Amino acid sequence: MKPSIGIIGLGYVGLPLALALAEKHTVLGYDTNKERVASLQKGVDNTKEIPTEEIQAVSIHFFDQPQALKHCSIYIVTVPTPLKEDNLPDFSYLESASTIIAQLLKIGDIVVYESTVYPGATEEICLPLLEVSSLKVDIDFSLGYSPERINVGDPHNTFKTIPKIVSASNKDALETLYTLYQSVLSAEVYKAPSIKVAEAAKVIENVQRDVNIALVNELAMMFKSFKIDIHEVLNAASTKWNFLNFRPGLVGGHCIGIDPYYLAHKSISMGYKPEILFSARKINEEIPNFVLKDLIQKLSFHKIKTSKAKVLFLGITFKENTSDIRNSKALSLALGLKKTCKNILIYDPYFKGEDLNIEFEFTSNLPEEQKFDVLVLAVAHSLFSKIKPLTLLSKVGFVYDIKAVFEPHEKIYRL
Ligand SMILES: NC(=O)c1ccc[n+]([C@@H]2O[C@H](COP(=O)([O-])OP(=O)(O)OC[C@H]3O[C@@H](n4cnc5c(N)ncnc54)[C@H](O)[C@@H]3O)[C@@H](O)[C@H]2O)c1
């Protein structure tokens, strides 16, 4: 008999996973967020990542009660792994999901975690909560870990086209999971030798990205004082085959800016305080402040009174082509700017200010006819590359193009 699959957590990761698996398997989705479940039942993804036609194209049921998943034999957990205020891992979602599954667990089931954690967390934190059921791993049920690697807002690298890592507590479960994921992926499924290896592989992908971006961010800050454009330097250096073409910018969101703290926490608990990892975090966290100071200096250079400056702010989400605002450094920058510039108008085609508990003025169209003292481009949404800054420049004092989307011009500054 084919297994029924229960997906626990239907967010940015869980929903695309559930829909892809539902093309070939029986899938039930469960989320604690009743509003999210109600809108998914109507075929609406309120994160705007997945169109209604795609949700309605497969047979899938969404529930806000876990009991609905009691006949499933594979449970896949895709709940958040954020940070607490002190940058320590917050396992509360994984813990509550594991406790719920323990109440549903039966002999022969497989429980797979996809949330990003540090190596060891699945076996040390989640497994004991599953075993509260009195069932024992590798005797009664199996444990798996398969990190998600989707790149939100990227239509080319999707759940189906990104190679997937699978790992499990025993060989049979590993084979079952390999076959399950391979049945819906066009990309390769890679069998990791252990759950810890799979956990570590995922977390270091984001650590590596954080460190590389921190390096170019540091160079950007350095070169600013040398009066050299970092983007021009990177264009030149990238002509060498082995130069890694990372670009400077704001590092936010719930992966790159979060996951390194998970690894660091584990490392410190084992007696080693990571150096590069923390330096990278510090540099990337500093960038909104650095841009803010630079922007205010430019306002003063252009003899624009900060308190009176009219600012058009393009992009507020944590990265390009998504509506996701969580841990957005573009938002941190806008908030910092708002302390001195009261007159900020935000244009973001993906996020229109809904659910934002902060008083910002949003516009739903690019206000091409209005005059502004400064235009700040904070997020490189693809739509912004169609903006013609030279037309706008007659109505804008200067442009601060953090992501170097526009062609260089004397009135366009970059990070
Ligand atoms: N978003 C990404 O781009 C991305 C990429 C790769 C990996 N990840 C990782 O995947 C995990 C999930 O991230 P996300 O972005 O999908 O989070 P998300 O916040 O978009 O979605 C998580 C969902 O889980 C639900 N939830 C929370 N606790 C629950 C519980 N006990 N039972 C059932 N549902 C519960 C929430 O209501 C929410 O809808 C995280 O560990 C994240 O680091 C995210």
List the main descriptive attributes of the protein structure presented here:
single chain, 415 residues, binds nicotinamide-adenine-dinucleotide, 12 helices, eight-stranded mixed β-sheet, six-stranded parallel β-sheet, 2 domains, globular, Rossmann fold, alpha/beta
Structure report:
The chain is an alpha/beta fold. The protein has twelve helices and 14 strands. The strands form two sheets. An eight-stranded mixed sheet has the order 3-2-1-4-5-6-7-8, with helices on both faces. It has a six-stranded parallel sheet with strand order 11-10-9-12-13-14, covered by helices on one side. The longest helix has 32 residues, at 195-226. The chain is globular. Nicotinamide-adenine-dinucleotide (NAD) binds next to helix 4.
The beta-strand count equals 14
H/E element string? EHEHHEEHEHEEHEHHHHEHEEEHEE
Question: Which strand order do you get reading across the main beta sheet?
Answer: 3-2-1-4-5-6-7-8
Give a short account of the largest sheet. Answer: 8 strands, mixed
Give me the CATH fold name of the largest domain.
Rossmann fold
The oligomerization state is single chain
Mean pLDDT over the full residue set: 96
CATH class of the largest domain: Alpha Beta
Q: What is the count of helical runs?
A: 12
Strand content: 5-15%
CATH architecture of the largest domain, please? 3-Layer(aba) Sandwich
- For this structure, what is the CATH homologous superfamily of the largest domain? NAD(P)-binding Rossmann-like Domain
Class inferred from helices and paired strands: alpha/beta
Low-confidence stretches: none
Alpha-carbon distance between the two ends: 57 Å
Shape: globular
Supply Rg: 23 Å
